[in-house]
Amino acid sequence: MLIRVENLVHIYAPGTPLARAALRGVSLEIGPGERVGIVGRTGSGKSTLVQHLAGLLEPTAGRIRLDGIVAHARTAAARAQRRRVGLAFQYPEDQIFEQTVFREVAFGPRNLGLEDTEIATRVHWALEMVGLNPAEMQERVPFSLSGGEMRRVALASILAMRPEVLILDEPTAGLDPQGRRDLLARIRAWQQETNLTLILISHNLDELARVVERVVVLGKGEVIADGPARQALSDSELLHAAGLDVPLPVALLHALQEAGWKVRTDRLLPEEAVAEIAQARGFSEKRP
Amino acid sequence: MNLLLPGVYVAADSVLHRLDPRVKMGAALLLMALPFAASSLSSTLLLLAFVTTVVFLSTAPLPALLRTLHTVFWLGFFMFFFYLFTTPGQPLVVLGKIAVTWEGVLRGTIQIYRLCLLVVIAALLTFTTSPSQLAHGLEALLGPLEQLGLPVRELTMVLTIALRFVPTIFDEIDKIIKAQESRGAHIRSNNPWHRVQSWVPMFVPIFVSAFRRSEELATAMEGRGFRGTRHRTRLYQLRLTRQDLFASLIVVAVSLAVVALNQLV
User: Fold this and answer.
1) Burial status of residue A287 (CB atoms within 10 A of its CB: 0-12, 13-18, 19 or more)
2) What average pLDDT values come out for chain B (265 residues) when binned by 10 residues?
3) Which residue of chain A is at minimal alpha-carbon distance from B207?
């Protein structure tokens, strides 16, 4: 699906003393199969932007087109487009309401009007995706689960709809480090398999660096940068201006560079940084 | 954030904002009785002029103030038609056995005007008085009832907390609606059956989070040593100033004038 954001403006509580502009003219285009990270400090408009992408808000000005169709319109065509976009809110476990895990995860597919057997297949698949054992979990009461398990169930309920565009707003906040890695690795694998468009909001740039290929930096409701992840995430000036810190490997390489090492700084992952340092040391050892 | 409630407190620094909440609440009560006391044209005009002046003094945003009238739209609508058809008098339009009368139009209009004035006066109070001040004022005004065994302090504490969480819960509702809609629920659908079906996915999460919040709040209050009501002191004491006295005098004077003008036609 091709997502086009055209000069999008969003003002909360317009015409009142509490009016607040969350987005001031955002334009961007996200093509099918792209993996995009949206970053920016709290209040920069990230969450508002992704809600627009899912057609859940009405723009104050400008518009969003999903494959050419205006996203928030109240037509059947627009509704059909919106169903192809899955959005997991921050703390998605707040949306849980069913009596069993199975029924909770089946809620989305059921709303799509699928057959029972297809629903069951999808529920099993989605629970496995988020690292839960379907046989063990599906009859349990969601409210009796731990916080981390509830989060996974909620994410599964969105995955089970098999969206073509998957938007995750801080999906791993509050999960343990291993849970985060596993979850993102599985989603990444599924993305590769199906050419899914993946849009990820995260404050954890180290995590983002493993998943996305493109980064959109938001600041005060405007796009301050939009480009390849390698470039955006290694630009410390840009990220500091946006109220963020570079990923740890980049910070390390910057420090080495300042200390006189001949290293490139656009190595986002720890293993890349290690290779870069090893290479640089190799050069230095050749010197007398 | 989308669901801005009508009549919600708007922080500002106007004469009205600075008045003692007890004075404002007393004045609002008195003024709300006046539309029913004002039966002549001159007294009605005086009251209208006074309320308009107060609206300007309050620096309340006019569109927001007018929006509060939305809340009573249907009530006003039915009241108007009730009076339109049930008031005896000179028939204007005859529809079978019932007749619309001149007197009905007039009385219906007067009732709507009274209703609107009531809402505006109440909105002026809530626009210019923060929830905690409202509760504080209420506690002071109801204080004497404590002698009769009414737990006034506990009740106002409950009221303060309830008011405090209204916007929070509305934010929550907004978020849940969106979350369930993105899972394909038909909450904003035009089909009534779809909307009824979506009540469970909407209300269960909202109740769950409300209970969780209240538990957290109770823990936080206990953690900070909140022990019911005995010997509680306040950081901000209510103190009547010359301005308060002045405002009270004006409101009483206007009220008396409205009643007096009734005699004059």
Assistant:
1) exposed
2) 58 82 89 82 85 85 80 85 79 74 83 87 86 83 82 82 83 89 79 78 90 92 79 76 89 87 72
3) A97
- The CA-CA-CA angle for residues A160, A166, A168, to 5°, reads 105
Count the neighbouring beta carbons within 10 Å of the beta carbon of residue B214. Answer: 12
Cβ-based contacts of B200 with chain A (< 8 Å): 97
Q: Is B158 on the interface with A (CB under 8 A)?
A: no
Report the SS3 class of residue B43: helix
Tokens representing A248 are: 């740890």
CA gap A60, B265 in Å, rounded:
51
pLDDT digits (tens, 9 = 90+) for A252-287: 999 999 998 888 988 999 999 999 988 888 755 555
Cβ contact A273:A267 at 8 Å: yes
B209 vs A: CB within 8 A? yes
Q: Are B124 and B60 in contact (CB under 8 A)?
A: yes
What one-letter code names the amino acid at B122?
A: A
Q: Which long-range contacts (CB under 8 A, 24 or more apart) does A225-228 make?
A: A226/A28
Distance CA B29, CA B31 (A): 6
Residue of A nearest to B7 (CA): A16
Quick one: which of A79, A66, A56 has its CA closest to A10? A56
